[in-house]
Design brief:
CATH architecture of the largest domain: Up-down Bundle
Largest sheet: 2 strands, parallel
Shape: elongated
Oligomer: single chain
Order of helices and strands: HEHHEHHHHHHHH
Number of strands: 2
Helix content: over 70%
Strand content: under 5%
Strand order of the largest sheet: 1-2
Structural class: mainly alpha
Low-confidence stretches: none
């Protein structure tokens, strides 16, 4: 709270401080664009070139602002950054960029330029000093020009064929990192927990005991699948992406798959809970078949036959064991 109270309002900045703030903004944005370029270079070289070009534009604008400051105020530029000014638009920390998809990075860059332009235009509208208003208006025009420059760079470096290739690469990476391990977890959680849950249900006809067994089986399977997925492949050679992401996807979906037909046993009435649980199992198995068809390009009827038949056999085994 003490730090927040020490932040200055934009309206209290002098013209020199406004120029200094603009210089630091341009420097920060150039670094962000270069970080994007480095992040994308291996898999999306066309988009990497776009962000390199945008970083060079930011460097040019920063140099123009430095020249302006030198002419008006001398060589010493005050240290003032976004975090020193109340209400200034914030930038995403660099370490959070590692988890952004290609489309999200493109959208983030567009939002950066839009926010900067909007900020400067609002600031220009609030000031009564003509010179300051002109300066802020010029900065807003520069930011608007950045958006046009980004579009021109996109036309130069990202033709339809390159864009299609990069989008396909992004889609494939999404499937390998999230969909494939998540689907494996959902299948394991949905199918492997059928036997213990329904065996317990028909053996005891006690809904609370059945729920506890289902909860333990689901959470245990989720932890096991998550660690197994994360430890099985570091993603360097296979290109499957971060083991941590894959571990979370697999572990969480395994737990969800088991809890789907365990939660109905929170209902005290045994047959009502069992009927709902069976309905949930039916929906889970068909959802798995749909995901396989949608993302893994498995023919729907083949996926349905494999998943539904396998699930039905495990379900039947659980019922028979519990009834015996």
């Amino acid at each position: 709270m003490r730090f927040l109270n020490q932040r200055r309002h934009f309206r209290d900045l002098s013209e020199q401080e406004v120029i200094a703030l603009a210089i630091s903004n341009e420097e920060d944005d150039a670094r962000i664009y270069r970080s994007y370029a480095e992040r994308l270079r291996a898999d999306f070289p066309g988009s990497a070139k776009i962000f390199e070009g945008m970083a060079e534009e930011e460097d040019d604008h920063r140099q123009r602002l430095i020249d302006l400051h030198r002419q008006r105020f001398g060589e010493v530029i005050p240290l003032i950054r976004r975090e020193h000014v109340a209400g200034a638009y914030a930038r995403r920390p660099v370490w959070l960029m590692e988890n952004l998809s290609l489309e999200r990075i493109r959208a983030e860059a567009a939002e950066m330029e839009k926010n900067a332009e909007h900020f400067y235009r609002l600031a220009a509208a609030r000031t009564k000093d003509a010179a300051t208003r002109k300066l802020l208006g010029d900065l807003a025009a520069v930011e608007a020009g950045h958006q046009a420059t980004a579009h021109e760079l996109e036309e130069t470096h990202l033709d339809d064929e390159t864009r299609e290739e990069e989008n396909e690469t992004a889609r494939r990476q999404f499937i390998l990192t999230w969909v494939q391990p998540g689907l494996a977890g959902l299948m394991d959680g949905s199918v492997s927990t059928l036997a213990p849950i329904f065996a317990t249900a028909f053996a005891t006809q006690d809904t609370w005991t059945t729920f506890l067994v289902g909860l333990a089986a689901s959470v245990g399977a989720g932890i096991s699948m998550g660690f197994t997925e994360a430890a099985s492949d570091d993603g360097e050679l296979s290109g499957r992406g971060s083991p941590v992401k894959r571990g979370f996807a697999s572990g969480i979906m395994t737990t969800v798959g088991g809890l789907g037909h365990a939660l109905p046993y929170l209902i005290p009435d045994f047959w009502t809970a069992t009927t709902i649980a069976i309905l949930v199992v039916f929906l889970e198995l068909w959802a798995i078949a749909w995901i396989q068809n949608r993302f893994m390009e498995t023919p729907f009827f083949r996926a349905a036959f494999q998943v539904v038949l396998g699930g039905a056999l495990v379900f039947a085994a659980g019922v028979l064991i519990g009834s015996g």
